[in-house]
């Protein structure tokens, strides 16, 4: 005997409300999973950034490795030469810049002191209602802020150890991504369901193309920015021009935000060390270089590789910086770009058509 007098509570609700409740529960569960995954990633951030950094560097030097293999080098040797060559360029650049900066320390200290005094005199002589006491308090607050931002000796030592461990792991992973990346990828695809393996394989290879083009395009953009702004710094005779040029180069790896911050830093240093006229000239150079980069170099080299709105880029950089500082800002945009492209491919209906031929995640030439 059935009981027809009772109606389930959900059956009393309108269809649209039941559907909204189902979507809300699914969204809450997905948010919880993503939050737990984010906590795990943050807890092992040294490993996380080593893996992401190694992938970015592998995307950058993979063309060189393939070229060396076509020149009859074994795969292991081509991978090793690519890694050592990249490390050599980085170490040599940092050594030259640091050595030059150390040789200019005495002159720089005097120039900074003179520049700050000039700025103080200009502010006090301006129509602004500022007294010596207010300017002094502003200086004390600025010094206190800088001192508070610096890590303690213990925290600094821990940071250095984490950095060295992360760099060692990055180099180790980079070699094996170049040497054995294709076989590692096939092993991962083998764990996916047979009905989806082809789509997953296509998504991964397309993601690698996006990452490789992003890395090469970013290098081209960073080179264009650093050449233009660096030329202005050297022509104006700004102290530490080489160091500022390197900062501009590295800043270009953070889209939109990095170029702006590094340009402001270069102009600010020029204002303090040389004066307002030279700073205005350099500001014009920075704006011109960034216009050329944004309207010519970036569209020509990257094309539509990112497919991200500037708002999405700024939000990604902000979140990455909040979670993991400078390293988070650098890796945020490529991670979001690759994730967006992979999601597009994995959520589309499976078709019978053959997947587009693409380069493997690293290379498939035999050595």
Would you kindly provide a written description of the structure presented here, covering whatever features stand out?
This protein is mostly helical and 367 residues long. Helix content is 81%, strand content 0%. Helix 7 packs antiparallel against helix 8. The N and C termini lie far apart (76 Å).
Uncertain spans, ≥5 residues at pLDDT below 50?
351-367
Q: What pattern of helices and strands is seen along the backbone? A: HHHHHHHHHHH
Structural class call reads: mainly alpha
Q: What is the helix tally? A: 11
For the sheet with most strands, the description reads: none
Radius of gyration: 26 Å
In round numbers, the mean pLDDT is 77
The N- to C-terminal Cα distance equals 76 Å
The number of strands is 0
Q: Helicity level, as a percent range?
A: over 70%
Report strand %.
under 5%
Approximate shape: globular
Summarize, please.
It contains 11 helices and no strands. The protein has helices at about 15-45, 45-70, 75-105, 105-125, 130-150, 155-190, 195-235, 240-250, 255-275, 275-300, 310-345.
SSE map:
Layout: H1 15-43, H2 45-70, H3 75-103, H4 105-125, H5 132-149, H6 153-189, H7 194-236, H8 241-251, H9 257-273, H10 276-302, H11 310-347
